[in-house]
């Protein structure tokens, strides 16, 4: 069964006009159930992740600032979100959603988090709509619990996974692969184990050829026993922050290649949604929904 993390806490309200589309976290499960891709039994509600697992990845001083709502104005500005208790609670629930989804992936082969993909959070700070890093927390949880010995992070969001790269800079058991817009945020890139910077306006065929050239060799080189897939849909040509040129079909083909590779190699995969900022919310929902449709078709 495809298990999906979802909580009403994911839909924390933001000031009117904020460019982060929180409404997608409500609309996506509604769409998936309306069309019959999933039903209510596919969803589970994450709780607050135990503090020890957050501190296994993030510095205690930074997390205490989040808990106490004592970030400086510049630190708050860097995250892109107005800081509040509800926002921090939201983030902590997202962390548990990804950890629990990873445990379901070990059981069923694949599992999803409606939110997550918070790859801009560093060990000691937040950036770019990310306060805590669910990819890193999940990977460290699996390693600490000895549920995985070699993890591959496949980050195909349009923005480089700079926080994830920083956290795992010295960790050989986590291989970070980020394929992102070369000229996009963050302007200062961290060093992933494999970074592929893409030119503005890249089309479907060129993008997919680059992915094909790199993904299968990585599977053979890294030999992962778990994959974390950041499947941001801000690669779409319609995305306000993206600058790449993919169609919705091209984005779907991207996800199909990743999921089919994981299935073929019999490697469990946890998918977290990442970014998506198209002007029309329907385009964001359709692109994200394709990931779930594919997971059902390929695995179940």
UniProtKB/TrEMBL annotation:
Cited SUPFAM superfamilies: Arginase/deacetylase
Family to which the UniProt record says this protein belongs: Belongs to the histone deacetylase family.
Protein name: Acetoin utilization protein AcuC
Keyword field: Hydrolase
Pfam families: Hist_deacetyl (PF00850)
Segments forming a coiled coil: none
Boundaries of every Histone deacetylase domain copy: 18-289
GO biological process terms held by the UniProt record: epigenetic regulation of gene expression
Molecular-function annotations in GO: histone deacetylase activity; hydrolase activity
Lineage, uppermost ranks: Bacteria, Pseudomonadati, Bacteroidota, Cytophagia, Cytophagales
